Amino acid sequence: MPKILCRCENLIDLTPIPCPDGFEMISEDEMNSLYSAPSGAAEDFIERFRRVSQQVYKCPYCGRLLVFWNKDQKATFYNLDPEAANPPLDKT
Ligand SMILES: [Zn+2]
Q1: Does residue 15 come out as left (phi exceeding 0), alpha (psi in the -120 to 50 range) or beta?
Q2: Is 29 within a domain?
Q3: Domain that holds residue 74
Q4: Cα of 85 to ligand 1 centre, how many Å?
Q5: Domain annotation covers residue 13
């Protein structure tokens, strides 16, 4: 039963599929390349998507994001900024 230990010491259970704390992240460049791929069955699209996407898990306890860049075996941790607020967009 695969599990990931978050820095807050919460154990994220990866056993359920789909994992409720799991996400797939994809760059805009890779997404554009998928648009130009030949159309096919949904299974083909999902296989191509998974090949270029990054696995992300969100700790349900502390909100950290654990990103497995480039299918790495170790996650990079991103801590939630409690003071984060969206700055106004520069529309100039
Ligand atoms: Zn955590």
Answers
A1: alpha
A2: yes
A3: 3-83
A4: 21
A5: yes
